[in-house]
Amino acid sequence: MTTLTNTKMQIDINKVKVGDIFSEESHYKVASIDRDSVHLQHLEGDMQVSLSKDYVTHFLNTCDQYTETVEVTKEDKKDGTPGIRTIFDGIKSSEVFCVVFKKQDKAKTKKQVADEKAAQREHAIGLIETAKQQHKSMAEAYAIALSYIQDNPVQEVIEGEKRTLRGFKVQFNSRDGKYRCIDMDIERTEAETGERLVNINTIESLVYQGVKYVVK
User: Fold this and answer.
1) pLDDT for the residue 213
2) What is the tens place of the pLDDT at every residue in 59-88?
3) What confidence tens digit (pLDDT) does each residue in 169-214 have?
């Protein structure tokens, strides 16, 4: 499991000279805003930094704003239009995004399924008894009970809940469609890295590089 630690070399500012080349890969969460600056919590360095509004406007990316909404399918279309699986798989950097997806379904125990079926049968019997008291025919009574069972089948899994993750990838290739990502809304501790799995097969929407992709 990947943990976020500030392991970069400490730069000797006294050795910096004109023409030196630098790069930056950082993730921030806004802490406060004043007239000229945005004060942010730096994720990797676990410290607060202040950036000018011009710098934020021109050089940072966000997953909380978008200027375009595009409807997409799960899979690529025959005309080559990429589906959400291809779009998400194509994120090959640690740039931030906001993704809404369903967590994995959880199988019920045999006892849970048996108990639900028993409760369903008991309810169906109650419907039959009520119908008989209302002087309906047995055929009508059984039809009412059967309709109830057909409309309310007992599922053997608990459907995964909807989940929103704002963060970035730490895994860029996947065989099973699950990608390790950092959820920047989770408070990190010694035991909590903020790492969570995103299932590419259950994505409902994605905000990335100013576009909101909605799966239809």
Assistant:
1) 98
2) 999 999 999 999 999 999 999 999 999 999
3) 999 999 999 999 999 999 989 899 999 999 999 999 999 999 999 9
pTM as predicted: 0.73
φ/ψ of 173, rounded to 5, equals -140, 145
Give, in degrees to the nearest 5, the angle at Cα 199 between 194 and 200: 125
Q: Which amino acid is at 66?
A: Y
3-state secondary structure 98-156: EEEEECCCEECCHHHHHHHHHHHHHHHHHHHHHHHHCCCCHHHHHHHHHHHHHHCCCCC
> Taking a C-beta distance cutoff of 8 angstroms, is the pair 40, 51 a contact?
yes
Centroid of chain to Cα 97:
10
Question: Quick one: pLDDT at residue 8?
Answer: 53
Tell me how far apart the alpha carbons of residues 160 and 112 are, in angstroms, rounded to a whole number: 17
Residue 96: CB atoms within 10 A of its CB come to 22
- Reduced to 3 states, what is the DSSP secondary structure of residue 75? coil
Backbone torsions φ then ψ of 141, nearest 5 degrees: -60, -45
CA distance 138 to 124: 13
